[in-house]
């Protein structure tokens, strides 16, 4: 499902979401998926590298498995590994423009 | 000649389990002085003259924290050792994407030094259980290194590995090292390669994380997750009392029986008094608490092994952030509940220097197991032993929960205040934490760990306690042969410190016990044990709590003592370790002065308040 959505983006589909600011990983709700577009420049280089080492590569599909209440860190799945990231880092990971 | 085999792997890939399986639990943990990582070594149980050296797991050989830096340097040094014959790189096949980059880096380093490497594909049984498989031959070709299937849990694949280590190569295997290897490939290319390989060979679908996701939906649920968290923490503290109680009674009875047997055999009166008062009353008062330390270590280890600790860190992250900490501070702080020293070591995993410093401030306020004897003694002396709900809820357990909670509250108060007053002195790093799958703990290594902690407690603290107890007994027994403690050398000394503790309603004996407990908190019970032992004419061993109840110590003073012990930093070893970790004595000395003063003032406040209320 997510793959077809990514393909939809590549085909140049224009949606309402495109006019908004790019979505970040943090904006994903429980059960939603997205494709990583890249990293925000404000995230330190060595941290960007570490995230890629952990599997958060641009082009990779990430699913939000849990989004606990009160702004607690969210739980994301990348391939078969599960990580928890808080808003300080997840908001710097940009997603390709449209997914549901 | 003994040869060495290196074992390395990324975090949470089952390395300790494999280590224990290969060495038959003969682990020796060496904590290198001045540096931050534990390198364990043990002899192979089924391979002659071969030692397995276990290096700490990291995600990459490109370190981003001080802890990783040391781990990586250690590994590099290990590779230079001519005795090292092979390197075993353990990967978790269920989560290839996080293991492969690290594996490629390890292969590169080994190629550069001409060390043969075996990639061990762990958790093949879990994969098979889900009807999935990974093309290990293909992976082996791409990695240019033999990939052997293994299961650290069941032991499958271990005999084949041992054959390989004995030098029995499989037919058709390439010679080592390869000409077309990765010895000169830079990190950035390796990272891309790893990503491609993981995509090509990694298991597909969400089958492997389904159970984990279902359990997380409960344990991280807003309502149930919070309730489960408090229930687990409450059971942890109740278990210290209820589970350990029979063993504590047994130790006490055993020591009493031994004292009754040994003391009459000692020839002179002086020797009899010494054995009864210094050895059995003093040292015995502290040995009674060993079962509690065992239970505490066991339960904390169980939480770590099961994977729950990472969830607890997540749950605590947001609340801890209010106090300037991170969810990663939770594990060091909870380890601090066992002992501040492993807590301080565990704080190395906090990559943000600012949050690490704040965690250091909180750890000595965590209710460590050295406080446990003091708390247990005072609670047993002042809180009635009533239970409800069929023994599930006890008033004494509840009091223990309260005093533990008080210590944690103080820790958070301090970090909250300091983080607000010191804005940006240190760099900060965000929160990324792997959520390991839920697993059943490996019981035997866990029991062993708990036993080792007890042994460490007995040998390390026991030495100090015996020395102090003997000194206290000597000063208290002479010059009048134990006739009157008040006029002994110790009594005269006590009159110097007495005035300091009078405002808390404590007589000089407690003052002396507090002064000696600055070496280590548990010395308090040993010192009191020796002093009351001299005072009483009793030949048999009497539980210390009976002496305290018989002394005219009031409830207000008892509570003041609890508050003082909860806050004051009274442990020479903690200060020494902290100075090493923080790089100077400044931090521990500042903390010693501040927490000592705060403890005294807090105790004074409580004493006055309770006295005022008519306690």
Instruction: Name the largest protein-protein interface in this structure.
Output: A-B, 33 and 41 residues
Name the shape of chain A in a single word: globular
**What low-confidence regions of chain A span 5 or more consecutive residues with pLDDT below 50?**
1-19
CA-atom Rg of chain A in angstroms: 13 Å
Find the count of extended strands of chain A (DSSP E, 2+ residues): 5
**Assembly annotation:** heterodimer
Outline the low-pLDDT stretches of chain B. Answer: 28-36
Q: Give Rg of chain B in angstroms.
A: 28 Å
Output the structural class of chain A.
Answer: alpha+beta
* Tally of DSSP helical segments of chain A: 3
Specify the overall morphology of chain B: elongated
Helix content of chain B: 55-70%
Main beta-sheet annotation of chain B: 7 strands, mixed
Question: If strands are numbered along the chain, what order do they take across the biggest sheet of chain A?
Answer: 4-3-2-1-5
The total count of helices of chain B amounts to 26
Strand percentage of chain B lies at: 5-15%
Fill in the keyword field for this structure:
heterodimer; A: 100 residues; alpha+beta; five-stranded antiparallel sheet; 3 helices; 5 strands; 26% strand; globular; disordered N terminus; B: 615 residues; alpha/beta; seven-stranded mixed sheet; two-stranded antiparallel ribbon; 26 helices; 8% strand; elongated
What does this protein structure show overall?
The complex is a heterodimer of chains A (100) and B (615). Helices cover 22% and strands 26% of the residues of chain A. With 100 residues, chain A is of the alpha+beta class. In chain A, strands 4-3-2-1-5 form a 5-stranded antiparallel sheet. Chain A is globular, with a radius of gyration of 13 Å. Chain A starts with a helix and ends in a 5-residue tail after the last strand. Chain B has 615 residues and is of the alpha/beta class. In chain B, 60% of the residues lie in helices and 8% in strands. Chain B has helices at 15-23, 66-80, 96-113, 124-129, 136-143, 158-165, 187-201, 210-219, 222-242, 245-262, 269-287, 290-306, 308-322, 330-338, 340-346, 353-362, 371-382, 395-421, 443-477, 489-501, 508-516, 523-535, 544-550, 555-567, 572-582, 586-612, and strands at residues 3-9, 28-31, 38-43, 50-54, 84-92, 117-122, 147-149, 387-388, 393-394, 432-434. The N and C termini of chain B lie far apart (71 Å). Residues 28-36 of chain B have low confidence and may be disordered. Classes of the chains: A alpha+beta (100), B alpha/beta (615). Chains A and B meet through helix 2, strand 2, strand 3 and strand 4 of A and helix 3, helix 7, helix 8, helix 13 and strand 10 of B.
């Amino acid at each position: 499902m997510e793959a077809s959505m990514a393909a939809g983006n590549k085909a140049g589909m224009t949606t309402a979401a495109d006019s908004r600011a790019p979505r970040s990983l943090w904006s994903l709700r429980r059960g939603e998926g997205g494709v990583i577009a890249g990293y925000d420049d404000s995230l330190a280089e060595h941290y960007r590298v570490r995230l890629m080492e952990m599997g958060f590569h641009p082009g990779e599909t990430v699913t939000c498995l849990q989004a606990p209440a009160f702004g607690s860190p969210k739980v994301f799945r990348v391939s078969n590994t599960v990580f928890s990231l808080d808003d300080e880092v997840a908001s710097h990971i940009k997603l390709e423009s449209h997914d549901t | 000649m003994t040869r060495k085999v290196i074992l390395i792997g990324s975090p949470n890939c089952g390395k300790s389990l494999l280590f224990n399986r290969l060495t038959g639990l003969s682990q020796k943990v060496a904590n290198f002085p001045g540096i931050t990582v534990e390198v364990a070594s043990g002899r192979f149980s089924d391979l002659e003259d071969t030692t397995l050296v276990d290096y700490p797991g990291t995600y990459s050989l490109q370190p981003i924290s001080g802890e990783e830096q040391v781990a990586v340097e250690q590994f590099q040094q290990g590779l230079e050792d001519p005795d090292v014959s092979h390197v075993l790189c353990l990967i978790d096949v269920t989560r290839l994407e996080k293991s492969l980059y690290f594996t490629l880096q390890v292969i590169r380093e080994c190629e550069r030094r001409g060390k043969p490497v075996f990639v061990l594909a762990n958790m093949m049984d879990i994969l098979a259980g889900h009807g999935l498989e990974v093309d290990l031959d293909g992976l082996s070709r791409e990695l240019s290194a033999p990939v052997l299937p293994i299961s650290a849990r069941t032991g499958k694949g271990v005999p084949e590995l041992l054959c390989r280590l004995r030098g029995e190569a499989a037919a058709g295997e390439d010679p080592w090292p390869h000409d077309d290897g990765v010895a000169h490939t830079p990190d950035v290319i390796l990272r891309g390669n790893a990503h491609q390989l993981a995509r090509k060979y990694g298991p597909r679908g969400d089958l492997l994380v389904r159970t984990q996701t279902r359990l997380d939906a409960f344990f991280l649920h807003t309502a149930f997750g919070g309730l489960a968290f408090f229930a687990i923490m409450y059971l942890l503290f109740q278990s210290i009392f209820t589970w350990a109680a029979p063993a504590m009674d047994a130790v006490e009875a055993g020591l009493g029986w031994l004292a009754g047997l040994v003391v009459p055999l000692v020839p002179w009166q002086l020797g009899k008094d010494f054995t009864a008062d210094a050895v059995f009353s003093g040292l015995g008062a502290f040995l009674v608490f060993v079962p509690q330390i065992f239970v505490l270590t066991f339960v904390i280890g169980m939480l770590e092994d099961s994977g729950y600790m990472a969830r607890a860190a997540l749950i605590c992250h947001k609340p801890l952030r209010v106090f300037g900490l991170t969810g990663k501070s939770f594990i060091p702080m909870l380890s601090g509940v066992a002992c501040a020293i492993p807590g301080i070591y565990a704080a190395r995993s906090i990559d943000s220097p600012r949050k690490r410093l704040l965690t250091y401030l909180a750890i000595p306020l965590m209710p460590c197991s050295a406080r446990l004897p003091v708390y247990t003694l005072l609670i047993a002396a002042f809180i009635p032993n009533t239970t409800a709900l069929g023994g599930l809820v006890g008033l004494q357990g509840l009091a223990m929960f309260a005093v533990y909670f008080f210590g944690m509250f103080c820790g958070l108060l301090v970090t909250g205040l300091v983080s607000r007053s010191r804005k940006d002195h240190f760099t900060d790093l965000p929160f990324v934490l792997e959520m390991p799958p839920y697993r059943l703990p490996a019981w035997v290594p866990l029991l062993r760990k708990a036993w080792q902690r007890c042994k460490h407690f007995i040998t390390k603290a026991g030495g100090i306690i015996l020395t102090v107890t003997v000194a206290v007994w000597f000063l208290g027994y002479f010059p009048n042969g134990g006739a009157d403690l008040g006029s002994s050398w110790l009594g005269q000394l006590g009159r110097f410190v007495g005035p300091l503790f009078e405002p808390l309603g404590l007589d000089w004996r407690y003052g002396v016990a507090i002064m000696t407990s600055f070496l280590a908190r548990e010395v308090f019970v040993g010192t009191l044990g020796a002093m009351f032992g001299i005072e009483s004419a009793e030949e048999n061993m009497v539980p210390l709590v009976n002496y305290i109840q018989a002394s005219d110590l009031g409830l207000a003073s008892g509570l003041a003592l609890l508050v003082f012990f909860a806050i004051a930093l009274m442990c020479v070893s903690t200060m020494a370790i902290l100075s090493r970790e923080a790089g100077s004595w400044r931090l521990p000395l500042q903390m010693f002065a501040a927490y000592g003063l705060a403890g005294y003032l807090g105790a004074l406040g409580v004493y006055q308040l309770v006295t005022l209320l008519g306690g």
